[in-house]
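Thread: Newbie trying to understand structure tokens

Hi all, I'm a second-year student working on a class project, and my supervisor (Dr. K.) asked me to get a predicted structure for one chain before our next meeting. I've only ever worked with sequences, so writing a 3D structure as a token string is new to me. If someone could post the tokens and maybe explain what I'm looking at, I'd be very grateful. Here's the chain:
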Amino acid sequence: MNAALKISSRTFAALKVRNFRLYFIGQLISVSGTWMQSVAQGWLVLQLTGSSVDLGIAVALQYLPILLAGSYGGLVADRHEKRRILYFTQIAAGLLALLLGVLVTTNHVRPMTVYVIAFGLGLVNLFDVPARQAFVQEMVGRDLIANAVSLNSVLMNAGRVIGPGIAAAFIALIGTAGSFYVNAVSYLAVLVALAMMRRADFVPMRTVTRERGQLRLGLRYVWNTPQLRNVIAAVAVVGTFAFNFTVTLPLLARTTFHERTAAHYGILMGAMGIGAIIGGLFIAHRSRPTPKLLAVLALGFGGFMTLVALAPSITLAELAMVPTGAFSIAFLSSANATLQLNSSEQMRGRVMSLYATAFLGTTPIGAPLIGLIVAGANPRIGILVGATLTFLTGTMLVVQLRHRGGELALSTA
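---
Reply by user tm_fold:
Sure, no problem. This is what the structure looks like when written as tokens:
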């Protein structure tokens, strides 16, 4: 019993901090709504167009602003109070979700309106993602940052478990609009959590004053710090080609396994979420990430994605999504914590914006590309391409570790 309590205490250490606990609860509710919208939006695009390319475009537009101006969003986070930024981004995201729900209800939704709203949400995320990432250390301090980042990944994927299942039921019973309305309301939970936080409990963080050349300075800082540069390069490869599940999974369910409802798509996403919770808790229990662990996680992620691509039935694909989710989120959590632990607080917003660019900002490249591959071949090939490149990334990390005596290095040449 004592051993179990000790493990639990270590795994959930950051939740002892009141401000982070409030943030965790608010985000859990909001993220569930976000995943409901993600599932409903993908299904809506397929209903409107039936095209994998159009689905890829809708997903890509949501992340295009981060690709084009991700460093600027990080600079804003470095210059201003993170909590204030989050107030604005949560309100804006909620209004966009409400607008999409109204358009669907009134039968005014068109593919172009979905694209515009997706791009608008991308603008919100341009500022929200780096502020949210950098805000974690302000809540818990440096000693708990790795644990908090992993628990944050757990809550993101707890939402992945809860949201898709509810969304599938909503789509079957009342259509896609219900998911958008629920997501709009869910942002209130984050606003309430932010309002209830005690300012005196925050760890003081320095902000930077406005000066010329701060974007270039951030890029130069990352480039000249190999441990940061190489982790971001690895995340960029995996983010571009592997994390396109909102494109590949609905098509796998609809075209490969001939499922005509959103139920199995929701199960696929939910299975990945269950695995991601397991992976996040594993990383939360560890005190610090290591380069060797990052390489092993990339190999595992690529390997289990391959099983998903080759699964002969949708049931086996759903089962394979559990370890796929575990390795994928463990990989991202380790990369995220590595960057936060090895960057200065004045640069953290810009460093995390580059992480967001590598992970999310590459979606405008990867999503349409995978959509084209699926259109020309099939969903299995689209997933297999991501799996192969992820496995190769892990292999390169292992090779570089051996050649450099344990130093993490990933050549992008």
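A couple of things are worth pointing out once you decode it. The chain has a mean pLDDT of 82. Residues 18-49 form the longest helix (32 residues). Feel free to ask follow-ups in this thread.
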